[in-house]
Specification:
- By secondary structure, the chain is α/β, with parallel strands linked by helices.
- About 45% of the residues lie in helices and about 20% in strands.
- It has 2 domains: about 5-170 and about 285-400, 3-Layer(aba) Sandwich (Aminopeptidase); about 170-280, Alpha-Beta Plaits.
- It has helices spanning about 5-20, 20-35, 40-55, 100-120, 140-145, 195-210, 250-270, 290-300, 320-325, 345-350, 355-375, 380-400, and strands at about 60, 70-75, 75-85, 125-130, 155, 160, 170-180, 220-225, 240-245, 275-280, 330, 335.
- It has a 6-stranded mixed sheet with strand order 1-2-4-3-5-11, with helices on one face. Strands 8-9-7-10 form a 4-stranded antiparallel sheet.
- Helix 8 crosses helix 11.
Length: about 400
């Protein structure tokens, strides 16, 4: 295929996204107006599946044991790669779609539909994976553990953000619930008979804060008290706190966990209390495939979208797509939606406004064109896969010498 034919195909892909723009806006707006929390995204899943089924995609609901997940598959001409477009669609408590997942899920669906509309003989298989519970629960981690990504050659999604970036990193993280057990007593008439679970919890906060001087600068430790007692005149017998621990890599996170958990257990023991520690799933650090990111950036720039450099330090969170990147070549680029930061009411407003719908259109186009590149440009696909395989060899070598 010569350069003119290549350009013509990409023009058709963009036109196919524009032809579905009204439909995609309606889906994103509907999800935005009906926010559903992690593992409860029943309506959003069906709204995303409906146009895929209508277009002839083979749809499976509830994969990997996750009730609100799905896999929608379309295969063009045989012999090409398997490309996964990842759809997120869960919301945050209290502030709804303040991370723009209504746009993320719809963009991946829109990209898949546009590819089938514009390139019916595309040499490859396009898989839309509905990945629930990114905000709380790690749906992609569960899907990774169940082998959903084992036969995927490349995976991608687009996140709305305050600036456009293709290589932004993310930290490894884990959430931990600390449940302190004391002994109830009357706080005035017989305090000597009590053991304060609340004092144990407060001491744990102090102990954790004392560690901050002795961890690396990219480590983040943040928590809240979810139960602090029932009445001020009763010595609390059960108190609880939830923390999130973050570090640059899963290996570094292990060191942070060891220090924090030791401090928490000592804080409980110091007042005669006990503590139970319950961990969530471990989110891995992000492994961005640079070769695929270059393809994505080129497609953004062809649309006149300026790409910014990621922050040199700080300014990053965590996502379960990090675990996907440990299994296959993966990218998680961002496209600017406006000046608001994620997880705020202002960002939620943008995700349902015209700014969000413009980003949705751009995200669907850039996803579709990058998937097209991987399917038709064998050299580009080879570079993407070789980079990932080299990363995997380097990682295994590091383990053997560690």
């Amino acid at each position: 295929m010569n350069k003119d034919e290549w350009s013509s195909e990409k023009t058709r892909i963009q036109q196919a996204v524009d032809a579905r723009d009204g439909q995609l806006r309606a889906i994103a707006a509907q999800i935005h107006a009906n926010p559903e929390l992690s593992f409860h995204e029943h309506k959003a899943r069906e709204w995303l599946i409906e146009p895929l089924e209508a277009a002839g995609f083979a749809v499976e609901r509830g994969i990997a044991g996750l009730e609100t997940s799905f896999r929608a598959t379309w295969e063009g001409a045989p012999g090409g790669p398997v490309i996964a477009l990842l759809a997120e669609y869960d919301a945050l408590p209290a502030i709804g779609h303040a991370c723009g997942h209504n746009l993320i899920g719809t963009a991946s669906v829109g990209a898949a539909l546009a590819l089938k509309d514009a390139c019916p003989q595309l040499p490859g298989k396009i898989v839309v994976l509905g990945t629930p519970a990114e905000e709380e629960g790690g749906g992609k981690i569960i899907m990774c553990n169940e082998g959903v990504f084992d036969d995927i050659d490349a995976a991608m999604m687009v996140h709305p953000q305050s600036k456009t970036m293709v290589l932004r990193g993310a930290l490894a993280c884990v959430d931990a619930t600390f449940t302190f057990h004391g002994k109830q007593a009357h706080a005035s008439s017989s305090p000597e008979k009590g053991i304060s679970a609340l004092d144990a919890l407060i001491n744990a906060f102090v102990a954790i804060n004392s560690l901050r001087q002795f961890v690396k600068e990219d480590v983040r430790i943040h928590g809240i008290i979810t139960k602090g007692g029932d009445a001020p005149n009763v010595v609390p017998e059960l108190c609880e706190a939830v923390f999130i621990l973050r570090a640059a890599t899963v290996g570094e996170l292990e060191k942070v966990r060891e220090k924090v958990y030791r401090a928490v257990r000592s804080a409980a023991e110091g007042v005669g209390a006990t503590v139970d520690i319950a961990e969530g799933l471990i989110y891995a650090e992000r492994n961005n495939n640079k070769a695929m990111a270059r393809l994505f950036q080129s497609n953004l720039e062809q649309m006149g979208i300026e790409v910014c450099d990621p922050p040199k330090k700080g300014g990053v969170g965590s996502s379960d797509i990090g675990n996907v990147g440990q299994i296959t070549a993966t990218i998680h680029p961002y496209i600017r939606i406006g000046d608001a930061t994620t997880h705020t009411p202002d960002f939620c407003r943008l995700a349902g406004a015209e700014e969000g719908m413009i980003e949705l259109n751009q995200a669907a186009k850039s996803l579709a064109m990058t998937a097209y590149d991987l399917c038709v440009d064998k050299e580009a696909f080879r570079e993407v896969r070789e980079e990932f395989e080299q990363w995997k060899r380097d990682k295994e070598g590091g383990r053997q010498h560690g």
